[in-house]
Design a protein that fits this description.
alpha/beta; elongated; 20 strands; 5-stranded parallel beta sheet; 57% helix
């Protein structure tokens, strides 16, 4: 991955304006398309598979009049008057008549209707009109809502206070406030302090804002085709902005340090993208995987939020590794820190020389008493997590935002009737097996009314086909109160006895029941999801750091910070600590907050972990000194990790004071989680625990080391590749081997040294197995064991891809003639390597290479010895070999590998003369032959190219000799 990122970074630096224009077009296309489609944000909390959702779906099928979205028109008479006064009653009935005419309204039930429930308050001042729509919340049009609200003028003209409430009136608009802007400004201040340069500080902000804009455009496009909650774009903006700034910060910081040490800007940009960018890609992928893990919970609205946020992170990663290096290419040497500046001194400071940085002073303090700091951090985070034990999860209670008509209606119902009237429960009753419908419905209602926390039970209402009925149950408690959850469970526990007594199965539904079911499912999924995330982190970190201790410590630290953040969130948002200061209304915690927090915080925690510990690992590999590696890695990464964490904190926390109700708790939990994880876990617990573990921190069982893939997160392989590439460039040749060892570590061949010029001939002569291993390695198909090896200017094994594209292998069948014709063999090779836009291989190319092969073999008395239609089985060994070489040359390689049979008759003088005629002068020939084969030097043309010989012998065979 490091090599790929290195190439991407170099390309973006060299072709800066092409990359920038591409990003501008992408941003304009996504935003323009999203705005043109006009997608609307809609909050829909459906959850397939639960009792409440199943009941809603059943009502939609058999009782559609009651399955749609609902709303309330709440009216309140002035002090001293009642809604039953003649003028008030006339106005309310006029509103009912107007509401019945609104397009999309299925039914209207007023407080004075025959089948009205308890719709007039005890003091007579407050009443409400129940409005039922044809479709679900997402189907109700803005025009219908405007028409419904317009009827309120009839009540207002009569002196009544009118407000409209219900799910359909929830605020779903997307907008940012001044506090979010302050968050970006705080991030800018941190960047300026970190880099000491306005130009450098502006780059992470620019890339992050472009990424956020592109992500918002993409979500807007999706909103035109499916339901997207109002929280999804806000969450995507918040996360995209934070990670976009941080990811660019990591790469830019690495680039400026390298510039300060005198590195060329282009080389520095490419290396920064390959090294720091590799950690960015790793961290971004962990966030994306964790967010996409929300899909397994099976809740549609949460899945959309997870996918939207994952898309924002993907755009942020792409911007960091493409747009940022393009900007680095535009400004070039303007980003070099001035000699003598703080940035220049920090970049060139030795571990133990000069003035100690704040990071060095902190790690020295921690390492003086690591046990104390481990106990202190665990104690603080453990105490912070205690409130999480009383975690109460629920969805928003439908009260709306402060100052809205929905909030006014909610408060009027609460004061006039009681909190439970804002969240009625709907009981569905299957009445297909009863003969006394109304008697049984009354009996069921009476039994429900005996339960605790029931304020009112309405009359049973059957549908026109008399197979399903509904009963409205009003709790005494608010929709999001724990007592309401208990009531729902108590009603469900009555179902078996009611079914046994009356033969009428019941189910509980309604917005409140749906919210309870969602919260229960999310609460049940929290621990399994946490285990999945922790397991994933252990596997990923095992690959990155090749250590058992580091992943386990990182996972435990993540759990500490996550549950500590949840605990603090519970204390403020549920218990009400400092609620007024943060403009928070105490209540249950948003049901999907904990699982969303774990998903996002997991990626961010791994980000900080990689940047801190990778430097420690690199130093430990060099020196073997565990304590020194902790100090080295920490002091070099502390500044950038501190800046990244502060930026994250400010961006997230800016959404708390004035943010939307749903996003407020998420933002706060993320801000606290980042602060806990970065400053307490990664920058205190990690160095203390690493120091206590010593060398054992880097222990890995040998069997596990063999199984785990080697993830080059710090670019160690890249640096080796660049060194070998520089070596290969200094000695241009088609094949360059210097002490190269082939084969396997347990059966090495070599070391071998040879240099073959372009167009030359390399004869690999010896045992069939050994020479074929060498030939396959030179073709890029096998990796060398050691030494230096370059083919066509690309070092191996890191440049194997380029070598494989430039070297073709002739598939020679000496003993068993393959089936098919000459033309089919050549066409098959062309078909395997043709460009994607070619439907079929070119017939003219097949004929051309057939004719060249026939000409190389020599014509017989009757003309060419074979054509495209000649069966391969009809050819001799020499002719088949030449045809196989022609098929390989049809790929237009720069070098060709041929392995001839050990039979002396397979490598004849005639074959060498034919090859000299067929193979173009600029193509290098690598040919494997047996020990007694005729030398290609018999052909003057091949001899003129320059023939080199390798005689590979495995060390085992050499020992046997």
């Amino acid at each position: 991955m490091a090599l790929l990122l290195h190439r991407i970074g170099r390309f973006a630096f060299r072709r800066a304006w092409y990359v920038i224009v591409a990003w501008v077009l992408l941003l304009g296309g996504l935003l323009g398309t999203g705005l043109a489609l006009g997608g609307q944000l809609q909050d829909s909390f459906a959850i397939p598979g639960t009792e409440s959702q199943t009941a809603i779906d059943q009502l939609a099928a058999v009782f559609p009049e009651t399955a749609g979205a609902s709303a309330k028109a709440v009216v309140e008479a002035p002090d001293g008057d009642t809604v039953e006064a003649a003028s008030a009653r006339e106005a309310i009935e006029a509103m009912e008549a107007e509401l019945e005419q609104v397009d999309g309204v299925a039914s209207v039930l007023g407080p004075f209707d025959e089948y009205a429930g308890d719709q007039i308050s005890g003091d007579g001042r407050t009443a409400y009109i129940q409005i039922q729509f044809d479709g679900q919340v997402t189907d109700v049009t803005p025009e219908s809502l405007e028409a419904v609200e317009a009827t309120g003028e009839l009540g207002s003209d009569a002196g009544l206070a009118v407000a409209f409430g219900g799910d359909v009136f929830q605020e779903t608009s997307f907008g940012l406030t001044i506090t979010e802007v302050f968050g970006v400004l705080f991030a800018a201040v941190v960047l300026i302090i970190t880099f000491g340069s306005l130009l450098a500080a502006g780059m992470p902000l620019l890339t992050a804002l472009v990424g956020v804009g592109a992500a918002f455009g993409g979500i807007s496009i999706v909103a035109a085709f499916t339901t997207v909650s109002s929280t999804a774009p806000m969450l995507a903006v918040m996360i995209g902005l934070a990670v976009g700034i941080d990811y660019a910060l990591f790469i830019l910081s690495r680039h400026r340090n390298q510039l300060a040490r005198g590195q060329d800007p282009e080389d520095s940009a490419a290396e920064a993208v390959a090294t720091a960018g590799g950690a960015v890609v790793f961290a971004g992928l962990t966030v994306i995987i964790a967010l996409l893990g929300l899909l397994v919970v099976g809740i549609p609205f949460l899945s959309v939020m997870g996918v939207g946020a994952a898309f924002a992170v993907l755009i942020a990663v792409a911007g960091a590794v493409t747009l940022l290096p393009a900007l680095l290419g535009v400004f070039g040497r303007k980003l070099v820190p001035k000699p003598g500046s703080r940035a220049h001194r920090r970049a060139n400071a030795a571990d133990d020389g000069g003035k100690r940085t704040m990071g060095r002073r902190w790690v020295d303090l921690v390492l003086k008493a690591p046990v104390v700091f481990v106990v202190l951090v665990v104690g603080v985070l453990g105490a912070a997590a205690v409130p999480a034990l009383s975690l109460d999860l629920n969805l928003p209670n439908g009260s709306g935002t402060e100052g809205s008509s929905q909030r006014e209606a909610y408060e009027m119902i609460d004061e006039g009737f009681g909190p439970g009237y804002n969240g009625p429960l709907i009981l569905t009753v299957d009445i297909t097996q009863t003969t006394d419908i109304f008697g049984d419905l009354d009996a069921i209602g009476a039994r429900i009314g005996e339960l605790d926390d029931v304020a009112f039970v309405g009359q049973g209402l059957p549908n026109p086909t008399a197979d399903t009925a509904i009963i409205q149950v009003i709790p005494e408690s608010a929709p999001d109160a724990p007592a309401t959850k208990v009531l729902v469970e108590n009603i469900r526990e009555l179902e078996p006895s009611i079914t046994a007594d009356y033969g009428t199965p019941i189910a509980v539904t309604g917005y409140t029941a749906v919210a309870i079911d969602i919260s229960n499912r999310l609460a049940d999924a929290l621990i399994p999801f946490a285990l999945i995330v922790v397991g994933l982190s252990i596997v990923l970190l095992l690959m990155v750091f090749r250590s058992v201790f580091v992943p386990i410590k990182a996972a435990l630290g993540f759990l500490l910070s996550a549950f500590g953040a949840i605990g603090v969130t519970v204390a403020i948002f549920q218990w009400g600590w400092f609620a007024d200061l943060l403009h928070v209304e105490p209540g249950p915690i948003l049901s999907f907050l904990p699982i969303l927090l774990m998903a996002v915080l997991f990626g961010l925690a791994m980000d900080y972990q990689v940047f801190l510990v990778s430097g420690m690992r690199e130093e430990f590999v060099k020196t073997g000194d565990a304590r020194r590696s902790v100090v080295h890695g920490f002091q070099h990464a502390a500044r950038v990790v501190t800046a990244a964490a502060l930026i994250m904190f400010f961006v997230f926390f800016a959404f708390v004071p004035e943010g939307a109700g749903v996003i407020k708790g998420i933002a706060f939990a993320l801000a606290v989680g980042v602060a806990f994880d970065a400053f307490l876990v990664r920058m205190t617990l990690v160095p203390a625990a690493m120091a206590l573990a010593g060398n054992a921190a880097w222990w890995l069982p040998k069997w596990l080391a063999r199984v785990l893939p080697n993830v080059d997160i710090e670019g160690e392989g890249l640096r080796t590749h660049l060194e070998q590439e520089e070596w290969a460039a200094s000695r241009p040749a088609a094949v360059n081997a210097e002490g190269a060892v082939f084969g396997l570590p347990e059966r090495p061949i070599g070391p071998l040294t040879v240099e073959v010029p372009a167009g030359g001939v390399l004869v690999v002569q010896g045992d069939a197995v050994d020479r074929r291993v060498v030939s396959a390695t030179l073709a890029g198909r096998l990796a060398p064991v050691g030494g230096r090896l370059a083919v066509l200017g690309s070092p191996l094994p890191s440049g194997a891809g380029a070598v494989m594209r430039g070297v073709a292998i002739a598939e020679v069948a000496a003993h068993a003639a393959p089936g098919g014709t000459v033309g089919e063999l050549i066409a098959g090779r062309l078909d395997a390597t043709r460009p994607w836009y070619r439907i079929a291989p070119s017939n003219s190319l097949v004929r051309t290479w057939t004719e060249r092969a026939a000409a190389a073999v020599g014509h017989g008395p009757d003309g060419p010895r074979f054509t495209t239609e000649t069966p391969l089985a009809a050819l001799g060994v020499e002719a088949r070999t030449i045809v196989a070489v022609a098929a390989a040359l049809a790929e237009r390689p720069k070098a060709i590998v041929i392995d001839l049979d050990d039979d002396p008759g397979s490598a004849t003088g005639g074959l060498w003369h034919a090859l000299a005629e067929l193979v173009p002068a600029q193509v290098t020939v690598i040919v494997g032959v047996g020990p007694s084969a005729v030398s290609p030097a018999v052909s003057p043309q091949l001899a003129a190219r320059g023939i080199r010989t390798l005689e590979p012998v495995s060390r085992i065979q050499e020992a046997l000799r």
